[in-house]
Amino acid sequence: MKKKVLTVDDSRTMREMVSFTLRGAGFDVVEAIDGQQALVVLASHKVDLILADLNMPNMDGITLIRQVRASGGHRTVPILMLTTESDDAKKQEGRAAGATGWIVKPFNPEKLIQVVQKVMG
């Protein structure tokens, strides 16, 4: 059975690039445009990994991580931040919220796949 990844980004282009990359590597992908929509998607999908942007309208990536970690069903799912932010303070805030890892945009497709496979075990 294919592993399922939820990609969360307010940029349609970025969602499409990430989804294309992951599908090409054999993953099943579901998409959300922000943290609020991601929570709706998570209510009806079991996912093996969440790949989320940091800066999004309605609900940012850090808030999404906190919500996921506080809820039941997806509490232990790995969450990778995929963002233009490379500031150490932001990375620390992400880790404190429960992020599994941090990837800075623009991303290298091969490295993205390697990291995704590594954190999913």
Automatic annotation (TrEMBL):
The modification 4-aspartylphosphate is found at D53. Residues 4-120 form the Response regulatory domain. One of its GO terms (biological process) is phosphorelay signal transduction system. Signal peptide: none annotated. InterPro entries: Bact_response_regulator (IPR050595), CheY-like_superfamily (IPR011006), Sig_transdc_resp-reg_receiver (IPR001789). Keywords: Phosphoprotein. PANTHER family: CHEMOTAXIS TWO-COMPONENT RESPONSE REGULATOR (PTHR44591:SF25), STRESS RESPONSE REGULATOR PROTEIN 1 (PTHR44591). This is Response regulator. It comes from Skermanella aerolata.
